[in-house]
Amino acid sequence: MIGLHTVAEVRAAEAPLLAALPEGALMQRAATGLATVCLRLLGQAYGSRVVLLVGAGGNGGDALHAGARLASRGARVTAVLLDPERAHPAGLAAFRRAGGRTLAPEAAGPALDRADLVLDGIVGIGGSGSLRAPAAALVQRAAAGPALMVAVDVPSGVDADTGAVEGAAFPATQTVTFGAVKPGLVVGAGRGYTGELHLVDIGLAEHLPAASTSQLTDADAAARLPLPDADDDKYSQGVVGVVAGSAIYPGAGVLCTGAALRTRPGLVRYAGTAADGVRSAWPEAIVTDGRPGDAGRVQAWVVGPGMGTDDDARSVLAEVLATDLPVLVDADALTMLAREPQLVRRRAAPTVLTPHEREFARFGSEVGADRLGAARALAADLGAVVLLKGEATVVADPAGTAFVNGTGTPWLATAGTGDVLSGIAGALLAGGLPAGEAAAVAAHVHGRAGQAAAAAGPLLAGDLVRHLPEAISRVRGQRPGGLPDSGP
Ligand SMILES: NC(=O)C1=CN([C@@H]2O[C@H](COP(=O)(O)OP(=O)(O)OC[C@H]3O[C@@H](n4cnc5c(N)ncnc54)[C@H](O)[C@@H]3O)[C@@H](O)[C@H]2O)[C@@H](O)CC1
Ligand SMILES: Nc1ncnc2c1ncn2[C@@H]1O[C@H](COP(=O)(O)OP(=O)(O)O)[C@@H](O)[C@H]1O
Ligand SMILES: [K+]
């Protein structure tokens, strides 16, 4: 699990180290890691042109110390001092000693136009609000040039906690962050400015609290996707019930049922008016055109995709939510639930809501720039797990534990892919995973299936279903087509 740590947590973890270590030692660790990454990126330091954008705080100090190291390796390094009077004194002294030269912001344009690498030390975790002049103009000029764009700790202009970006921000090709990954590097708009992320160990780990926000790795997801064993039968892996689609629009039922089958193919029951379509697409499913109560026993329900919002649909939703089983609520069922949130508030069993931004807004407030904060607030308000879909899907539970999904592709922005996600998550809920983890693992696997499908070109939601077995095998670290060891 990759822990994501807030600015307050990082500052608190730094405090005992700053007190215990000689002055400047922590910054030296950061700058050494930063210079190492830059040298690797440049390939050859000698003769390369490096420009540092240097703000008035510790972030500028990191850039100056790293710039000094690059200069001593033969790079031609120029520091643009945004606030010369307040530039980090020790960093500036080291930089000058190493032969670095300085420029005023007004004179920096030509150097930025021909730089090989621009190091963004304007502002790090001490930043607030949108980038001020002249920082914003320098960032834009650098972005228009040919240089590798390396952000120090956090791309300037990105809120390290939320990923919010107001105005200009440094569009990094690489971000070298120190001590811990900050949420804003992987969520919201900030995710789009981070580029490739490098984490430099400066010795904070033992001082950081357990992270309340995390990102799953393939190994974390695999550990939560147990394989069937010799004692399993078709019931024991968890039976999922699906209410989705309608007679006129069976597609959502077909996609959702197929995704559930392909995730944990023990048994999937379908109940709803798309019964004919589902039956012909998935002969493996047990299908009824009756109500959920007619479907037989299940361990979790998925309700909502394409089911409509009329009185019948509303009564089916109420029936499912009145059970003591885990329920995943999506799409049309979210629209109905937003009108009657007490249906979820009164539940004792886990509920997972999977809104996209417009569905989220129906519950009373817009998502806004702080996606994690918004998901946490709705989860706490309703007492349910909220999986907020989007480019970086986030999952929050009512206690405040959250996940930021790290997989996926913009090709997923096509009709029906949400129905597939619901089927995956429903299957994992039925298998007994805690609701927040089921949602997070589902988003991870869904994203991997999207990446696998997109490798062959533009994807359709049905392609995701077909790619699920391959995606799950890859998450487990197995090569597609590889035969398992068959023993002696
Ligand atoms: N405390 C330490 O010893 C360490 C600090 N480190 C570095 O220091 C950084 C934190 O240093 P600071 O606390 O000094 O803060 P920063 O250097 O991140 O930012 C503070 C400075 O940025 C300016 N600023 C804030 N918002 C701005 C905006 N929107 N536009 C333009 N300027 C803005 C402020 O006026 C202030 O001068 C970390 O991100 C990291 O890069 C690392 O070297 C690790 C060790
Ligand atoms: N730009 C994007 N990048 C990555 N994933 C995306 C993007 N846009 C949407 N997605 C994903 O695609 C899926 C779309 O779901 P949804 O909006 O419910 O569609 P539908 O209702 O048509 O099934 C979600 O899993 C979402 O996270
Ligand atoms: K920065």
From TrEMBL:
Give residues annotated as binding (6S)-NADPHX.
58-62, 124-130, 153, 252, 306, 356, 419
Name of the encoding gene:
nnrE
Q: Which residues form the YjeF C-terminal domain?
A: 217-475
Instruction: Tell me which residues bind AMP.
Output: K389, G390, E391, A392, T393, G418
**UniProt-listed InterPro entries:** CARKD, Nnr, Ribokinase-like, YjeF_N_dom, YjeF_N_dom_sf
Q: Per the UniProt entry, what is one GO biological process?
A: nicotinamide nucleotide metabolic process
Q: What does this protein do?
A: Catalyzes the dehydration of the S-form of NAD(P)HX at the expense of ADP, which is converted to AMP. Together with NAD(P)HX epimerase, which catalyzes the epimerization of the S- and R-forms, the enzyme allows the repair of both epimers of NAD(P)HX, a damaged form of NAD(P)H that is a result of enzymatic or heat-dependent hydration. Catalyzes the epimerization of the S- and R-forms of NAD(P)HX, a damaged form of NAD(P)H that is a result of enzymatic or heat-dependent hydration. This is a prerequisite for the S-specific NAD(P)H-hydrate dehydratase to allow the repair of both epimers of NAD(P)HX.
Q: Which Gene3D superfamilies match?
A: 3.40.1190.20, YjeF N-terminal domain
What's the EC number here?
4.2.1.136, 5.1.99.6
Cofactors needed by this protein, per the record, are: Mg(2+); K(+)
Q: What is the species of this protein? A: Blastococcus xanthinilyticus
Catalytic activity of the protein: (6S)-NADPHX + ADP = AMP + phosphate + NADPH + H(+); (6R)-NADHX = (6S)-NADHX; (6R)-NADPHX = (6S)-NADPHX; (6S)-NADHX + ADP = AMP + phosphate + NADH + H(+)
Q: Which domain of life is it from?
A: Bacteria
Q: How is the cofactor bound?
A: Binds 1 potassium ion per subunit.
Annotated residues that bind K(+) are located at N59, D120, S156
Name the family the entry cites: Belongs to the NnrE/AIBP family.
Q: What is this protein called?
A: Bifunctional NAD(P)H-hydrate repair enzyme
The record describes its quaternary structure and partners as: Homotetramer.
**Where's the YjeF N-terminal domain?**
10-210
Q: Which UniProt keywords apply?
A: ATP-binding, Isomerase, Kinase, Lyase, Metal-binding, Multifunctional enzyme, NAD, NADP, Nucleotide-binding, Potassium, Transferase
